[in-house]
Design brief:
29% of the residues lie in helices and 23% in strands. It is α+β, with helices and mostly antiparallel strands and 276 residues long. The radius of gyration is 17 Å and the shape is globular. The structure holds 2-amino-4-trifluoromethylsulfanyl-butyric acid and cobalt (II) ion (CO) (2 copies). One cobalt (II) ion (CO) binds next to β4 and β5.
Length: 276
């Protein structure tokens, strides 16, 4: 027996071709992306020692409701929350719960808001109080890797160029790239073509063309790249229990480069900027 949501997901299985969006799509993504970024900005002050990830989830849900947006993860394949909260060695898809955050934790919050049918998907790292130098370094390398991937996202390059740029930076900094999760086409579907791997070989994969819209969302580990999924069926953790970090933007390929739909209205790229 399959659930309604699973049946719906099957109906909407992608066609296997990479959609090319026009100005209306870019306008829709700009609006959804900016609301998503506002939600992530709002969470900056809320993340502190003692707060629970369930409280952060409720804050995000309230923000979405107040702005006529729908959190895409709510009831997605049985997921029951508005955000994913991935703490320390959790790589991605951590489920909000009653555990209070502790000084020194690093947490990724991932949210996708649907506005007028368009999906703005983004995630950021949040330091909880004072964090260690090694956590700070991991966050810096993760944002630099995302920036390297975004810089490679332009017409004439390929999806493999994006992955190669991310991998080259992460590995030069003696960190590793998680292989098990990828960026994805986004737009009026949550997960569409193309897949964006965060590692790879330059010149391989799909040719990037103006109108393509997708996420780049590298997960970077201090230790080895391998992950396992916990018994809840969602939470991905590093096998060696070393720290992991992730950052995600939704972008669109333009004639000359790309547009980042989910950049912070406050101008924060690396969250460590917000505290300097
Ligand atoms: N937002 C995630 C992504 O970047 C997907 C989360 S699906 C969930 O693709 F069900 F785990 F929430
Ligand atoms: Co995504
Ligand atoms: Co996401």
């Amino acid at each position: 027996m399959i659930t309604y949501v699973e049946a719906e997901a099957k109906n909407r299985r992608t066609s296997g071709v990479i959609p090319l969006h026009g100005e209306a799509g870019f306008a829709g993504m700009r609006k959804a992306g900016q609301l998503t970024a506002q939600a992530l900005d709002l969470l900056v002050d809320a993340v502190k020692p003692g707060v629970t990830t369930l409280e952060l989830d409720q804050l995000a849900y309230g923000f979405a409701r107040d702005h006529n947006a729908i959190p895409a993860t709510l009831f997605y394949k049985g997921y029951r929350h508005s955000i994913c909260t991935s703490i320390n060695h959790v790589v991605c898809h951590g489920i909000p719960d009653e555990r209070p955050l502790r000084e020194g934790d690093i947490v990724n919050i991932d949210i996708t808001l649907i506005v007028d049918g368009w999906y703005g998907d983004s995630s950021r790292m949040y330091p909880v109080g004072e964090i260690s130098r090694k956590s700070e370094r991991l966050i810096e390398v993760t944002y630099e890797s995302l920036a390297a991937g975004i810089a490679a996202a332009k017409p004439g390059n390929t999806t493999g160029d994006i992955g190669a740029a991310i991998q080259a930076h992460a590995e030069a900094e003696r960190t590793s790239v998680v292989r098990d999760f990828v960026g994805h086409g986004v737009g009026q579907l949550f997960h569409d073509e193309p897949n964006i791997m965060h590692f790879g070989i330059p010149g391989t994969g799909a040719l990037l063309k103006p109108g393509m819209i997708f996420t780049i969302e590298p997960m970077i580990n201090l230790g080895r790249p391998h992950v396992k999924i916990l018994a809840d069926g969602w939470t991905a953790v590093t096998r060696d229990r070393t720290l992991s970090a992730q950052a995600e933007h939704s972008i669109g390929i333009t004639a000359t480069g790309n547009e980042i739909f989910t950049s912070s209205p406050k101008g924060w790229f690396n969250p460590l900027d917000a505290r300097r």
